[in-house]
Amino acid sequence: MDFTLFIFLLVYLGMMLGHLPWLNVDRTGTAVMGAMALMIGGQIHPQAAWDAINFGTIGTLFGLMLVSASFHEGGFYRWTAHKLGIMQVSPNILLGLMILVSAGLSALLTNDVVMVAMIPVLCAITIARQQNPIPYLLACCFASNIGSTMTLIGSPRNIILAETTHASFPEFSSITLLPSIISLFVIWGVLVLFYKNHWTLTPTADSSGTTLQESTANEAPAPFNRVETIKAVLVTVAVIAAFVWTDWPHVLIALSAGTLLLLNRKISSHNLLQNVDANLLLMLMGLFVVNKAISETGDLTVAMDWLQGIGINLNSALQAFPITAVISDIIGNSATMMLISPFIDPVREQAALLTASISMATGFSSNAVIFGSLSGIIAVEQAKANGVIITAREFGRSGIPITIITMLIAFAWVYF
Questions:
Q1: CA 235/CA 219 separation, integer angstroms
Q2: Are 58 and 258 in contact (CB under 8 A)?
C-alpha cells in the first residue's frame, strides 16, 4: 500500500477510535504523528506542509478561543454554573435552564471551552444537592452541540466550513436558528421522560448502572470578576457585529479581539493562553498536512469522482446532510469538516444553505455517540475526573432518540 494512503487511513482510524490501537496516542497525537511521518518519509516537503495549514481557520479559532478564555478567567462560566446549581427550582425547570444557558453560551463562544469550565461545577453542585448529575451533564453536552449550530462562531467545525464557503453570518443563522431552538425543547422533553424517576442521587449507582463516585461537591466557585466579564462581553458583541455588518476577514476580526483581551493589567497573558485548546489547534494543523498529502496523490479525488458518478454530490445541501452526519459519528465532526472541506465549492449562490445543512447534520448527529463531538468527549472526561461515570450506553440511551428527532426536524427544514 502507498505510504501516504497508509498514513491517511491510520490517522483517520485514530480519529474514529479516539486513539491508535495498542498505543497511548490520542487524536491530537495521531494527527501530529501522521503529519510528521509524511514529512520524514518525503511524501510532503516541510514548506509545503506549512503552506497546507489554513491560517484563516487556525487564526480565527485561536482568536475566538482567547475571547472564550477571557470569560473563563473572569470566572463567568463557573459563576454561571454555580448560580444555576443553587437555584431552588424543580429538577425539570433546572434542566431547562441548563439547556438554555449551555446552548446560548455555545452559540457565542467556543463550545469546548464552555464544557471544560462548566462541567466540573455542575458535577459538584448537583451532587451537593443530592441530585443525579447525569441528566444535567447530558443536557449541557447535547445543548452545546445544538447551540453551536446557531452561529458561524459556535464551534470549530463551523469556522472550518465558513472559511471554505465564505457563508454570510446572518444568512447562516437565519437558516439554523429555528430548528436549533426547536431541538432544545426536544432535548428537554426526552431527558425529562427518561429521568423522571431518577432525579435523586443514590450512594453508588443510579437505576441504569451509572456509577457515582466521590466528588469535590463543596468546591467553591472561582471569584467572579465583573470588570473583566464586562470587557469580554463588549469584545464579544463587537466581534459579532463585525461578523454581521462588515466584510472584514474573519481571521482579522478574531485576532483583533484576542489582541485586545491580551492587553490586560489584571489577568496575565499566560493565564489566558493556557485556556486556549492547543490540542485542538494542533490536531487541525496535523489534519491539514495529512489531507494535503493525500490530495496530492489524487486518491481522494478519485473517491469523490466515484461518489459523483453514483449520484452523490457534497455540494448539494440535501445530499450532504446524511453523508456528513454518518461520517461525523465515525471520525468526529471536526475531523469530518477537515476531510470534506477541500471538496466543497466556495463559489455558490446557496453557500449559506449548504453550510447550514452540513453544520446541523454534524452538530445534531453528534449527540448519538460520545466521540461524535469534542463536547461529548470533554463532558464525559470532565465528569469522570469529578467522580461521575457516564457510559457509552447511558449517553446513547437518550442521545440516540434526541439525534433521530432533531435530525428529522433539521432535514425537513432544509428540504422544505
A1: 30
A2: no
C-alpha cell at 368: 448519538
| Helix, strand, coil percentages for the chain (3-state, nearest 5) | 70, 0, 25
**Is the CB of residue 373 less than 8 Å from the CB of residue 331?**
no
Quick check: 275 and 113 in contact, CB under 8 A? yes
The CA distance from 1 to 358, in Å, is 32
* pLDDT, averaged in runs of 10, over the chain (416 residues): 85 82 85 93 91 88 88 82 76 89 87 77 78 89 93 86 84 92 96 86 49 44 76 91 87 92 83 83 89 81 77 81 87 83 70 89 90 83 82 90 95 85
pLDDT of residue 377: 83
Q: What is the DSSP track for 10-34? A: HHHHHHHHSB-TTS--BHHHHHHHH
Cβ-based neighbours of 339, under 8 Å, separated by 6 or more: 12, 287, 291, 327, 331
328-to-46, 171, 209, 273, 363 alpha-carbon distances in Å: 29, 24, 28, 29, 9
Q: Which residues pair with 200 in a beta bridge?
A: 131
**Helix residue ranges per DSSP H, 109-133:** 111-128
Q: What is d(CA 295, CA 343) in angstroms, rounded to the nearest whole number?
A: 10
Q: pTM for this one?
A: 0.82
Task: Output the CA–CA distances (angstroms, integers) from residue 32 to 91, 394, 411, in the order listed.
Answer: 44, 32, 35
How many Cβ atoms are within 10 Å of 382's Cβ, its own excluded? 20
Secondary structure in 3-state letters for 160-193? HHHHHHCCCHHHHHHHHHHHHHHHHHHHHHHHHH
